[in-house]
Amino acid sequence: MTRLEAAIRERRVGVLCERLRRHIPPGRRLLDVGAGDGRLAAALARTTAPRALRALDLAAARREDVEVEAYDGRRLPLEDRSVDVAWVASVLHHCDDLTGLLRELRRVTAERLLVVEDRLESAWDRLRVTGLHHVIEGALDMPFSPRGFTSRRGWARRLAEAGFRVVATEDVAPPVPLFPANLLIIAEPA
Ligand SMILES: C[S@@+](CC[C@H](N)C(=O)[O-])C[C@H]1O[C@@H](n2cnc3c(N)ncnc32)[C@H](O)[C@@H]1O
């Protein structure tokens, strides 16, 4: 990873941590699905005093402060309603079964789901988002589905189909200028 990439990643995690932690009360059981290298989970664990934290992804990763566990990408290895707050940050558009993952998140989440996705409200947003993801796919071998992206209304519909209701949405500034902005969706079991 170049120093520039590392700096962008660091800045992105800082921005997301600052926004997500406002929606995570202390003492909760937390779940990060699609946790990647575990950096965001570690930052949120440091700032939200969780009772417990699980971090899952398709491949395992180990940091000194967080262990990311591998699972099959389909069935979350968790009991029903066994986590209070779950989040999926920049994950759903990479999933081959986005609807299935949302239903699994509904099954295991008792209190709140936080979704971070690329904001897609205009043709300009779509151009930037798909352009950036083609570059990321080539550089980092991280396939995505253009159909994974949608607008606020589209996310509200997808989440409702999985049994969540959206209680708020927030725009999140991009980590560096010219990058697409993110959308933070705060949802609760319906
Ligand atoms: C762009 S990375 C985001 C990593 C991390 N959430 C972050 O914000 O830094 C997308 C991640 O989603 C994971 N992913 C893709 N499909 C998944 C699935 N069905 N379940 C869990 N993770 C998945 C990928 O392996 C990858 O680590």
Structure description:
There is one protein chain. The chain has 190 residues and is an alpha/beta fold. It has a single domain (3-189), classed as Rossmann fold (3-Layer(aba) Sandwich). It has helices spanning 3-20, 39-48, 98-108, 123-140, 152-162, and strands at residues 29-33, 52-57, 61-62, 67-70, 83-89, 109-118, 164-172, 182-189. It has an eight-stranded mixed sheet with strand order 3-4-2-1-5-6-8-7, with helices on both faces. α1 (3-20) runs parallel beside α2 (39-48) and α3 (98-108) packs across α5. The longest helix has 18 residues, at 3-20. It is globular. 38% of the residues are buried. S-adenosylmethionine is lined by residues 33-36, 40, 57-58, 73, 89-91, 94-95, 101, 142. Residues 33-36, 40, 57-58, 73, 89-91, 94-95, 101, 142 line the site of S-adenosylmethionine.
Q: What is the CATH topology descriptor?
A: Rossmann fold
Q: Please list the strands of the largest sheet in the order they lie side by side.
A: 3-4-2-1-5-6-8-7
CATH class: Alpha Beta
Low-confidence stretches: none
Spell out which ligands are present.
S-adenosylmethionine
Mean pLDDT: 94
CATH superfamily: Vaccinia Virus protein VP39
Shape: globular
User: How does the major sheet shape up?
Assistant: 8 strands, mixed
Termini separation (Å)? 41 Å
Helices and strands, in N-to-C order?
A: HEHEEEEHEHHEE
The share of residues in extended strands comes to: 25-35%
Tally of individual helices: 5
**Helix/strand class:** alpha/beta
Q: What CATH architecture label applies?
A: 3-Layer(aba) Sandwich
Q: State the helical fraction.
A: 25-40%
Could you tell me the radius of gyration in angstroms?
16 Å
Whole-number count of domains: 1
